[in-house]
Design brief:
By secondary structure, the protein is mainly alpha-helical. It has one domain: Orthogonal Bundle (Cytochrome p450), CATH 1.10.630. It has seven helices and six strands; from the N terminus they run H-H-H-H-E-E-E-E-H-H-H-E-E. The longest helix is centred in the N-terminal third of the chain and has 43 residues. It starts with a helix and ends with a strand. About 3% of the residues have low confidence. InterPro entries: Cyt_P450, Cyt_P450_CS, Cyt_P450_E_grp-IV, Cyt_P450_sf. GO terms for molecular function: heme binding; iron ion binding; monooxygenase activity; oxidoreductase activity, acting on paired donors, with incorporation or reduction of molecular oxygen. It comes from Triticum aestivum.
Length: 229
Amino acid sequence: MASNMRVLIYYTEDVMFHAMTISYMIAARDTVATALTWIFYNLAQNPNIVSIMRNELSLIASHKVAAHPDAMVIFKPDETKSLVYLRAVLYETLRLYPPAPLERKMVAANDIMPSGHEVHAGDTILISLHSMGRMEGIWGKDCLNYNPDRWLSEDGNKLRYVPSHKFMAFNSGPRMCLGKDIAVMQMKTVIASMLWNFDVEVMKGQCIEPKSSCILEMKKGPTITLVME
């Protein structure tokens, strides 16, 4: 009996590991790519924000340039880990353009929501993250403005605490995205390397709008020009 139990446990752990690995591989691909598209589009519209980000990157970049003057500057994950403003820019983009714009939840047992609404076992609840990021009651009167400063403390040296049920780009509670830290690390590294080496310009005359999909892709995709710094 004990031997059978060990086999069952090992099998269960193997299945869970397989499922988690597949989730990392599939879930991160489209969501990260979509988020980066919206990030570079928004940064192209806000050169003042780009200047602040480059100023934050300059201390790290200066050492790299001194060591390899003719090489392109590539930032490593551990180098971008402490960059507060870069993360604020990332979160501000995810607030307005969450890669997964809609969450679907199934009610496990009868309950009463904080709003006072009754829900019953088996009910389906749809949560529009795209709408939540644009609600004045949640984010204030400037909810439609692209403003990374909303994520910073008063002195600008650290991130302000925002509960996950308010900012649900990575889900919330026990369903928090397992790949959150990996995704943030990947995006920060790509953003830092691209912004330091290139100016990002969006060609004029394009109609930029989201595509109706389970992933908030940009319809038709933007035409972007990269200009070497």
